[in-house]
Specification:
The complex is a heterodimer of chains A (429) and B (294). In chain A, 45% of the residues lie in helices and 12% in strands. Chain A contains 17 helices and 14 strands. A 6-stranded mixed beta sheet of chain A has the order 2-1-3-12-4-13. Chain A has a 4-stranded mixed beta sheet with strand order 6-9-5-10, sandwiched between helices. Chain A has a two-stranded antiparallel sheet with strand order 7-8. In chain A, a hairpin with a 3-residue loop joins β7 and β8. Chain A is globular, with a radius of gyration of 23 Å. The N and C termini of chain A lie far apart (54 Å). With 294 residues, chain B is mainly α. Chain B has 13 helices and 2 strands. Chain B has helices spanning 2-41, 58-64, 67-99, 105-117, 120-131, 137-144, 156-184, 188-196, 201-212, 214-229, 233-238, 250-260, 264-293, and strands at residues 44-45, 53-54. The termini of chain B are far apart. In chain B, β1 (44-45) and β2 form a beta hairpin. Chain B is 77% helix and 1% strand. In chain B, strands 1-2 form a two-stranded antiparallel ribbon. Classes of the chains: A alpha/beta (429), B mainly alpha (294). Chains A and B meet through α3, α4 and α16 of A and α5 of B.
């Protein structure tokens, strides 16, 4: 009897709690990134939306804490606790979410595909389309990866231009790396390659170099076949192996920003680092951004990794049309201006640099213009649910061949290709 | 009379059941159900968000031919082989020192125990800084005496011993306390009698102290072996399992399969295989220790 009373009380409590949620003033829930600038942007946009749309008010909540956005969203999807909309959907997990029918395809909305096609360059849009030709994500913003240089160090060694080719990069690396204070220990390096054995780290060395050196290709062909079994990949492995062998990159774990502390001449990063640099740079610190260096023989346009983030509408939503309307508001021209102003991140948008609305912003922020010009020449992730494991295979061999120098680049590449082929065969599409 | 006592007995039984109900619920929800579900997963492919897909024994076949799994097991065993003897011996020595007449005994005891209660992640981040090859405090100190730099966590040969050293520092306080409790329970008259017989300090240690604390020794050995098998935070935070998978532990590999690649079925299979290995090692260890004790 007592048990029945306890169970009845619990049931009543949960029913009341559930009703409390459903009877709230909000029609939609929206998860933003946990980045403070993006939270600020989301607050501004949600406030604007709510004041103009009292019938479809949005409740804002930053993405719950977790090691990565991928983990949090997948766990939320597993528990059926996804929001209506999330603006921090990593495109790398979209194939997995789409396969599980967790995302609402944009194609479901009457003006969906057309709206996105008007916003994005066609070539770039195609990289977000799934193998079943559906668009399960709304490409929102990108952070083209470039190289940030410490101009003070370059001037000190008499290097007056920013490297654009591998040989120029290596020439600079030779000049800047070494023991500058004469205590017998190396204290300055070319760049801070992250040596932690995690696939994500390769998005800031191997992957942008691969995209740049291959003229905009990604590691899979047609989202299904290995595309990095090439001389370009081997040369990138050799390029990094040489750097570690010569001591241009340190095989060390770092804590703190070594670039701003003047220990690194270059730092591979995105536009978000402009505000970070401005905030924390020491007095007199001068810097500039250059493209990802390419092989000396390379001819063609400069491509790079775009580090894109998408917006997703989740199938748990009870109001998909309202969610789509809010999403259109999030990616409107005006909202994109606020994305630039508040977050210093770039909307994935056609003619970004030619649109008069953004002209003043880019005049005031010439460095951001450099990144904006690269947006149409960025590449993101292939649409395959096994892509993380493919990156892990590359990461494993990058570690062995480049960082540790225990395997030849050719041998390492063959191993990465073999493991990736097995992974794609077993778990890919 | 009989009926009354029967009612009382039945009432007591009902009260007992009611009192243990929270535990039953807890056990069912958090132990039995996950265990059974994990076992079901072993025969399936599951990405956590999609439907379960029956794959029969293929997860086991994959496990048998997965070099990374065997590497992870080997790494874990290497860690245990370094960590357990180091931990047991140092903890015993420290406990013996704390059991002797030294000043500020309480302060030392607290100091040894402090890392145990500090967050594992916080401690690991601290050690990450200490171990940094180029800027770490350890290498800076060694440089002053002309040694180094030592690639503590960036060279495959050094990484696991360095992690074992750190894990020992983190956990040793608990084992010092256990040993200390064992040492303080040894009757003093045994030492007095040995003194009369002219026994040396070493003889007293091996013939009185060691046999007397044998039960504590067994507990410490089993606990630290189990702790060794659950190695996760240290490599997860410092090395991510590298360099060259040299610090990839069994648990870290489970985590990677489950939450990086979302392969829940395969992760569950690794989990069961690891549990079987742990059980085997503990059984062998217990038999050996009990045989030695006899």
């Amino acid at each position: 009897m007592k048990m029945l009373i306890i169970m009845g009380s619990c049931s009543l409590f949960f029913t009341c709690a559930r009703n409390g949620i459903e009877n709230s003033d909000y029609l939609l829930t929206y998860w933003s990134s946990t980045n403070p600038y993006e939270i600020e942007l989301a607050k501004v946009l949600v406030a604007d939306w709510n004041s103009a749309h009292p019938d479809s008010m949005v409740e804002l909540q930053p993405l719950p804490e977790g090691r990565s956005g991928e983990e949090v969203l997948i766990i939320a999807a597993a528990g059926g606790t996804t929001p209506d909309i999330c603006s921090n959907v990593p495109p790398i997990i979209v194939p997995l979410l789409a396969k599980a029918k967790v995302l609402v395809p944009v194609d479901q909305f009457a003006d969906g595909r057309e709206f996105i096609a008007q916003r994005l360059p066609k070539e770039l849009l195609n990289t977000f389309v799934a193998t079943d030709s559906m668009l399960y994500q709304i490409p929102w913003k990108g952070n083209p990866i470039m190289v940030q240089y410490n101009l003070g160090i370059l001037k000190e060694v008499g290097f007056e231009r920013l490297p654009t080719t591998w040989s120029e990069w290596n020439e600079l690396a030779e000049l800047v790396s070494g023991d500058t204070d004469g205590d017998g220990r190396e204290d300055r390096w070319m760049s801070d390659v992250n040596i932690i054995a995690e696939w994500r780290q390769r998005l800031f060395d191997f992957y942008p170099f691969f995209i740049a050196a291959s003229g905009g290709q990604t590691i899979l062909k047609n989202n299904t076949e290995i595309n990095f079994n090439t001389d370009v990949s081997r040369e990138i492995f050799e390029f990094y192996a040489l750097g570690f062998r010569e001591g241009w990159y340190a095989n060390s774990i770092w804590i703190g920003d070594q670039f701003l502390q003047g220990r690194m001449a270059a730092h591979i990063t995105g536009p978000w680092n402009i505000s970070h640099t401005e905030r924390f740079k020491p007095d007199g610190f001068e810097y500039a951004f250059g493209p990802i260096p390419v092989p000396d023989y390379f001819e063609g346009e400069h491509y790079t990794f775009g580090d894109p983030k998408s917006i997703g509408i989740f199938s748990t939503t009870k109001h998909p049309e309202a969610a789509w309307e809010f999403t259109k508001f999030l990616i409107s021209r005006q909202a994109d201006l606020q994305l630039l102003q508040i977050c210093m991140q770039l909307p994935l948008r056609k003619d970004l640099v030619n649109d008069s609305l953004y002209a003043t912003y880019f005049e005031e922020n010439p460095m951001m213009r450099q990144f904006a010009e690269l947006v149409p020449h960025t590449r993101g992730f292939d649409q395959n649910p096994a892509l993380q494991e493919v990156f892990d295979a590359i990461n494993e061999q990058f570690d062995a061949a480049c960082i540790q120098g225990r395997r030849t680049p050719s041998e390492a590449l063959q191993k990465a290709v073999k493991r990736s082929e097995n992974v794609l065969k077993a778990r890919g599409i | 009379m009989n009926s009354k006592s029967g009612k009382i007995r039945s009432g007591k039984i009902n009260a007992g059941h009611t009192l243990v109900t929270p535990y039953y619920i807890f056990f069912t929800l958090f132990i039995a159900y996950p265990l059974i579900f994990s076992f079901v997963l072993v025969f399936h492919r599951w990405s956590i968000i999609g439907p379960l897909e029956w794959v029969g024994l293929s997860n086991f076949f994959e496990l048998g031919g997965d070099p990374l799994f065997w590497k992870a097991i080997l790494n874990t065993l290497i860690f245990i082989l370094i960590h357990v003897p180091l931990q047991v011996s140092v903890a015993l020595v420290l406990a013996a020192i704390l059991n002797s007449k030294i000043p500020a005994k309480g302060a030392f005891r607290a100091a040894f125990f402090l890392p145990v209660v500090v967050s594992g992640v916080a401690v690991t981040i601290l050690w990450k800084q200490i171990y940094s090859t180029n800027l770490g405090i350890l290498n800076q100190v060694l440089h002053l005496i002309g040694i180094g730099p030592i690639p503590w966590v960036t060279d495959p040969s050094w990484a696991m011993p360095s992690i074992a050293m750190m894990a020992t520092w983190k956990n040793i306080g608990l084992y010092v306390v256990l040993f200390l409790a064992g040492l303080q329970g040894i009757p003093k008259h045994l030492y007095d009698a040995a003194d009369i017989d002219g026994a040396t300090t070493v003889q007293k240690f091996f013939h009185i102290t060691v046999p007397a604390i044998n039960p504590v020794f067994i507990v410490v050995l089993i606990l630290s072996t189990l702790g060794g098998f659950s190695l996760f935070i240290e490599p997860y935070v410092i090395t991510g399992g590298g360099p060259m998978n040299s610090t990839l532990s069994g648990v870290l590999y489970i985590y990677r399969q489950a939450f990086s690649f979302f392969r829940m079925g395969y992760a569950a299979t690794i989990g069961f295989a690891l549990a079987a290995i742990i059980m085997t090692v503990i059984i062998i260890q217990r038999r050996f220790l009990e045989h030695e004790a006899d």
